[in-house]
Design a protein that fits this description.
161 residues; alpha/beta; five-stranded parallel sheet; two-stranded antiparallel sheet; 5 helices; globular
């Protein structure tokens, strides 16, 4: 497994969903990581021009597989050592597909962690069912936990959350 000292670049991913809007949690986490000296990129697979609000209605057009693969592929070309995915219950299928894609490209060259409401609510069940995709699950507010995790990869049991 990758050691804490090896983690310099972190890729955060917001998977496709049904609504539009920025993922505030990933914004907070990316800001905290950057402040601690990590290089961070955020891939937004959820928002794109065809889905942005147009007055009183919202266009819920779908993002094609090729579109998200291009976005995530560019992020993977950057060779991150950690990939974090935000998961809501309604984005879980997309999150699993994206993480599987990341693993197929990077393999063991990165650690994979998930956070978000779905992970926090289903905790152990989530990791048991998805241990083939994710190395860690972040419970609750992730800003401090993600830093703690990346610093303590050799002793993840000491990480709160």
């Amino acid at each position: 497994m990758i050691q804490s000292a090896e983690i310099k670049r972190v890729l955060l991913v917001d998977p496709r969903g049904f609504g539009s809007g920025l993922n505030l949690g990933l914004g907070y986490i990316s800001a905290v990581l950057a402040k601690k000296g990590y290089e961070v990129k955020v891939i937004d697979c959820n928002n794109f021009p065809a889905r942005l609000s147009k007055g009183a209605s919202i266009n819920l057009g779908s993002l094609t597989h090729e579109d998200w693969r291009i976005k995530v592929g560019k992020g993977l070309d950057w060779q991150p050592q950690a990939v974090g995915v935000s998961i809501n219950s309604f984005t879980q299928d997309s999150a699993y597909e994206i993480t599987d894609f990341c693993r197929s490209k990077l393999g063991g060259k990165a650690i994979y962690f998930a956070g978000g409401p779905h992970v926090s609510v289903f905790k152990k069940d989530f990791l048991e069912k998805n241990k083939h995709l994710f190395d860690f699950g972040v419970i609750g507010e992730g800003e401090d936990t993600v830093i703690d995790l990346l610093v303590n990869l050799d002793n993840p049991g000491s990480v709160k959350g």
